[in-house]
């Protein structure tokens, strides 16, 4: 059975809904305040695993990051799009212009 088949279709699991915190209600961008078990035709599944994968990327995983390793850090370099200062690419989170670098899998 696929993982997406286990996802219950309701506003609580929708990307457009935000929990209000009052009586388990959800604020929907399209419908307003609705109950947590309601869903509409605009339902878009919210998968936490894909969100965590996206949030886990760092500057050093991007194709725009140019490495200039020093003797202490192999992830040291410059962002080719936004920066002129060198920084540790493994510490900074990826920006909105992030494009995944092929072949680089490990952070040092």
Q: Features of this protein?
A:
108 residues, mainly beta, three-stranded antiparallel β-sheet, 1 helix, 6 strands, elongated
How far do the termini sit from each other?
Answer: 36 Å
Rg (CA only): 20 Å
Q: What composes the largest sheet?
A: 3 strands, antiparallel
User: Would you count the extended β strands for me?
Assistant: 6
Please list the strands of the largest sheet in the order they lie side by side: 1-2-3
**How would the global form be characterised?**
elongated
The topology string of helices and strands comes to EEEHEEE
Classify the helix fraction into a percent range. under 10%
Secondary-structure content class: mainly beta
**Segments where pLDDT lies below 50 for 5+ residues?**
none
* Relative strand content: 15-25%
Q: Total number of helical segments?
A: 1
The average pLDDT value, as a whole number, equals 76
Summarize the SSE layout with pairings:
Blueprint lengths: L16 E3 L5 E4 L3 E4 L12 H8 L9 E3 L8 E4 L7 E2 L20
Antiparallel strand pairs: 1-2, 2-3, 4-5, 5-6
Structure description:
- With 108 residues, the protein is mainly β.
- Helices cover 7% and strands 19% of the residues.
- The chain is built from one helix and six strands, in the order βββαβββ.
- Strands 1-2-3 form a three-stranded antiparallel β-sheet, with no helix packed on it.
């Amino acid at each position: 059975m696929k993982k997406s088949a286990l996802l219950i279709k309701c506003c609580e699991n929708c990307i457009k809904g935000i929990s209000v915190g009052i009586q388990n209600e959800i604020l929907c961008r399209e419908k307003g305040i609705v109950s947590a078990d309601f869903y509409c035709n605009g339902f878009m599944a919210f998968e936490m695993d894909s969100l965590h994968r996206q949030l886990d990327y760092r500057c050093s995983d991007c194709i725009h990051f140019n490495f200039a390793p020093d003797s202490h850090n192999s992830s040291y370099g410059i962002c080719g799009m936004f920066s002129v200062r060198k920084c540790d690419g493994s510490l900074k989170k990826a920006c909105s212009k992030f494009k995944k670098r092929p072949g680089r899998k490990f952070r040092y």
